[in-house]
Amino acid sequence: MRKASKILSYSYLAIVALFLYLPILIIFFFSFFGQSGVNFSTQSGFSFFSYAAIFTSDASSSLFSAIANTFIVAAAASVIATLLGTVSAIGIFHLGSKMQKVVNNVNQWPIISSEIVTAFSFVLFFSSLNITNGWVRLILSHVTFCTPYVVLSVIPRLYQIDGNVYEAARDLGATPIGALFKVEIPMLFPAIISGFIMAFTMSLDDFIITQLNKGTTGIETLSTYLYQDGAKRGLEPFWFAVFSIIFVIVLLIVLLGNMRKTLSAKSKKEGTK
Amino acid sequence: MSKPLAAVRKKRLFAFNRKVFAFPYMLVLLLFVVVPTAMLLVNAFLFDGKGSFENFTLFFQAGVFLQILGNSLLVGLLVTVICLLIGFPVAYMLSRFKNGGALAMVFVIPMWINFLIKTRAIASIFEWMGFRLGIASVIVGMVYIFLPFMILPIHTTLSNIDKSYLEAARDLGASNSEVLVKVVMPLSLPGVISGITMVFIPTISSFAITTYLGGGAVELFGDVIYNAYNLDLYGVGSVMSIIMLVFVLIASFAVNKFGDSKQGSSLI
What we know:
The complex is a heterodimer.
Chain A: H1 2-30, H2 49-56, H3 60-93, H4 97-112, H5 115-128, H6 134-160, H7 163-171, H8 176-205, H9 208-213, H10 222-229, H11 237-272
Chain B: H1 2-17, H2 23-44, E1 46-47, E2 50-51, H3 54-61, H4 63-96, H5 100-108, H6 115-129, H7 135-159, H8 163-171, H9 176-187, H10 189-205, H11 208-213, H12 221-230, H13 234-258, H14 263-267
Antiparallel strand pairs in B: 1-2
Helix pairs in contact in B: 2-13, 3-13, 4-5, 4-7, 4-10, 5-7, 6-7, 7-10, 8-9, 10-13, 12-13
């Protein structure tokens, strides 16, 4: 009986997993059979046409500039967000409890609010200030929705670490700045890094806010470029290759990140033995 | 004598001063979060540069907007219910397996792939299979995209339930199904609420999914907000955004009241 229910459970999980992965597998499979203008056909045989098309198609230059823009915005926004978020997390930690509550609530607003609403409010904001430059708009808006993740990552760590260590450093003659950089920041470092990674990922992943605020300067990121180019029926074969590469990268990053987590948890467990 | 005292005072002053670090960010929040949100409110009451209720009249009198809002709520409800019906058993089974934590990764990984890429990918598969694009393909697509967001919070809550509760219930004579209905389900409520809001809100407010999967036949609330932006209808767009905000507020209220507010951060 128990065995039967176990088999039933596993088959249910397998079906749902299949539902989640089948589209990805189909795209991945056909990415090796692409020909010009042909997506879903194995007739022309196995080839790397779709992958080569990333470099040789008419759209290559737009594709690469979109990829570059995506990373420029994500890098700029997440670096600024990390600096701003870390410093302000320390500040928020030392605020009075009432003020702390207010700031924490406003800080969560960009996360809980609907993306289209955030995007629309930025449109109003930028247009009333006459800020038309796409780079300025994108970086400002991305910093705004990325910083909360850094703050939310660093503050719990501030509660964990022993505040006396900072005091001890000061008592031993460290300047406030010295104690901050040589003692406190290193202790916060893991949280700062995970905040940075989150901010970077959120910025990379964003579509809606970017689409409404890219301005008239013609900045396309990967997702807005896909939105524009993918609107027509039938996708260029190189997109299948791009999707497949992204699937593999995401899979590797998540698996590696998870493996590192389990490994460090394991070593911690063994360390206590 | 005076030197240590000065040192102490200096230290106090600094300890007091460290909250200064929050001030630049408070300014940023004020400027880029509070002011733009306030602008939505102001613009909703601005028509031709004058204060009026014209935008609200426009929204509520043009029956089409209300109809789209109604349709969006229906689609959102349907997608959320389907995700819950498929996702809860997944989360429950995962929580009962010894290796459930590792297996859960399988269901979480798709969350990390950009939703536009997933949408476009299944749109081309639907085209290939000759599926007629319409409301059905939108719903299937949305379930596909948002299912992981339902599974993860429920799984987190379920795997944090103290197993001794379940043993106690069984010792007191409850059958397996009674344990599930009377113990596990009530205890899973925080995760379920988080899951519902994480699926429902983006379902009614995202616009790209219908573009690709609706075949031009489906328009949801996110689409009309996006169209308002495209047509420079900032007034009516603000009214719609505010209506959307009301749903967000209801959702976050529900999460605060019944849910686990830490779910959001565990997601990322």
